[in-house]
Structure formats: C-alpha cells, structure tokens
Specification:
Keywords: ATP-binding, Kinase, Lipid biosynthesis, Lipid metabolism, Magnesium, Metal-binding, Nucleotide-binding, Phospholipid biosynthesis, Phospholipid metabolism, Transferase. By secondary structure, the chain is an alpha+beta fold. It contains ten helices and 16 strands. The structure holds adenosine-5'-triphosphate. Adenosine-5'-triphosphate binds next to helix 3.
Length: 294
C-alpha cells in the first residue's frame, strides 16, 4: 500500500479545513493509501511534520493551508533525498502557489487531484539559507507587507499589500543596489527588486509572463525611481504582464545572482519576512514534484 500524510493548518483562511479532511480521507482510502492526519498548532509544526514524513518515506504529502504553511513544507522537503509528491489544497487568503502551479482554487476540486492529478516538476529558488517557490522582493512591497494587518488581509486579500506598497512608492524610498551574475556587476538606484520563479505575483497570474515555474530561471526586475505618472504607467504594464518593457525597469533572466544593497535591507521571501541583504540566490531546476491538473 502507498503511504500518505495529511497536514492541516486549521487556522488557515476561513477555517473550513475540517470540512475537507473527511473528503481527503475518503479519496486516499479509495486510492489505496494508508495515511495519517496531523493538525498544526503553531509556527514550524508543518515543517517538522514534513521532515518526519520524508524520513518515513511517505509517497504523498497532502497539505491543507495557505502559502505560509506550504512554504514551511517546501523548506522541509527540498533538502531531503526521499521527497514525497506534494499535493496542495489551498485554504489561504492569497494562495499564490496554487495559482502559479494551476492547482484548482476550490478545495473540493483540488482534492480530486488525489485521483486525477498529474505530476509536475517545479523549480525551487534558494535565497541564503531559505527556499522559495514564488517570489523574493526587496524594497517597497517587502516593507509594505509588515504594515498589513490580519484584518486588512482577510478583508482585502492581496489588494491590502498592493495598497500599502503604493503608499511606500509615494514615499520614494530609493536605495542603491548591486546585481552580480556570472562575473557581471550592475549598480542601480532602485525602489523595488523582484526575483520571480513563477508568473504569479500578489495573487495575480500572468503578471510576470516571462516566468514559467519549470523553466530553470529567475526573472529579476529592478524598478528604478519613478515619478507618480511613471508609477501608474508601471502598474498598467504590470497588470498586462509586460513589466520589463517599462523604461524604468531593468530585467535579468539568470540561474544565480547576488543582490547587495548599501545598507542592510530585509527581503520578503514568499510573503514573509525572510532574510537580509546581501542575498545569494540560486535556482534548483524541477526540484519538487507537485500534483496539478491536466
Ligand atoms: N493551529 C494554528 N493556529 C494558529 N496559527 C497557526 C496554527 N497552525 C499554524 N499556524 C501558523 O499560521 C501561519 C499562517 O498560515 P497560512 O499561511 O497557512 O494561512 P493564512 O495566513 O490564512 O494564509 P495566507 O498566507 O494565504 O493569508 C503558519 O505559518 C503558522 O505559523
């Protein structure tokens, strides 16, 4: 019999996870899995459970939660030899990972992947000692994230970040940044540096149309100082997926890079405060197996 583990964060999103627990159990039983269910109670529980699952050579790891929970699990899986297939049931408010990998956003539909999902190998980014599957950013949006309250987040979802980010843009917080890649070094004045693995940003898919989750590259955007008018134009470009065509944007497509800022800046890694500059980034191509739709 195949072995599975279900990890549930009962506090994620609208807290409806228990409704889906039984559905997952039924589907796993029907598909010849022997399984266990573990509920998280606090930060790092999901990470610990996922590490144990690797040690026990589990075949399938079902994770029900938001991006925070998924991020913990991914950080547990990436360094292990025996990595189970990851199956995500999105229960968060933003669900960037599910959007990026084309996992249905309706939990009932996502659960069906146990039966009819296909396996996709996806890239993972490494930044200093941390791993990420979506986006690292330094500057306005990174700082905005810390000012968004839980209440704003549950009311406005990803829009809350965008609004706080725009406020920061208006404050014109510019910093000097050096981007080094393969022996080349570029120095720029920036308001925001984005390093994307996927095409999804703040819950919108196709915003970074250059990026494919399995192309083996980072897509790096350095957004230079903008006037208010340019800021609006840039947002429009961003919404149409053509950010790199904006004059105030420098774009790099690379497998590894180092980002150094004049003063230490905190980088936001997949939605959470992550690590401080300098950032050393490298891509692990097609490193994780994830269940997605046909
Ligand atoms: N039982 C629990 N009660 C409260 N917090 C928990 C519990 N279990 C885990 N956590 C914490 O909740 C954090 C965030 O959860 P998660 O990202 O899955 O949901 P979310 O915040 O609703 O989703 P999103 O990030 O999309 O808004 C986890 O990183 C963990 O620290």
């Amino acid at each position: 019999m195949k072995k599975a583990l279900i990890i549930i964060n009962p506090s994620s999103g609208t807290e409806e996870s228990m409704k889906y627990k039984e559905m997952a159990e039924d589907l796993l039983t029907k598909n010849d899995y022997q399984f266990e269910v573990l509920l998280t109670e606090k930060e790092n529980d999901a990470k610990r459970y996922a590490e144990d699952a690797c040690a026990e050579e589990i075949d399938l790891l079902v994770v029900m939660g938001g991006d925070g929970t998924i991020n913990e699990v991914i950080n547990a899986l990436v360094t292990r030899e025996n990595r189970p297939v990851l199956h995500v049931v999105p229960l968060g408010t933003v669900n960037n990972f599910a959007r990026a990998v084309d996992i249905p956003l309706r939990p009932q539909a996502a659960l069906q992947l146990i039966e009819n999902g296909v396996m996709k190998n996806v890239d993972v980014g490494k930044v200093n000692q941390q791993y990420f599957v979506n986006l690292v950013n330094v500057g306005a949006i990174a700082e905005a994230t810390y000012h968004v309250t839980t209440e704003q987040k549950s009311k406005l979802g990803s829009l809350a970040y965008l609004l706080e980010g725009l406020k920061k843009f208006r404050e014109k917080d510019v910093f000097r940044v050096a981007i080094e890649t393969g022996g080349d070094k570029v120095e720029l004045e920036a308001m925001l540096v984005l390093v994307a693995v996927t095409d999804t940003f703040a819950s919108w898919k196709n915003l970074i149309k250059e990026a494919e989750i399995d192309d083996g590259y980072f897509h790096v955007f350095v957004i230079k100082q903008l006037t208010n008018f340019e800021g609006v134009a840039m947002l429009t470009k961003l919404m149409s997926g053509s950010l790199k065509e904006q004059e105030q944007v420098e774009y790099f497509k690379v497998k590894e890079l180092t980002i150094t800022t004049e003063e230490t800046k905190i980088a936001n890694v997949d939605g959470d405060e992550g690590t401080a500059t300098p950032l050393h980034l490298s891509i692990l191509p097609k490193h994780l197996r994830v269940l997605t739709q046909n």
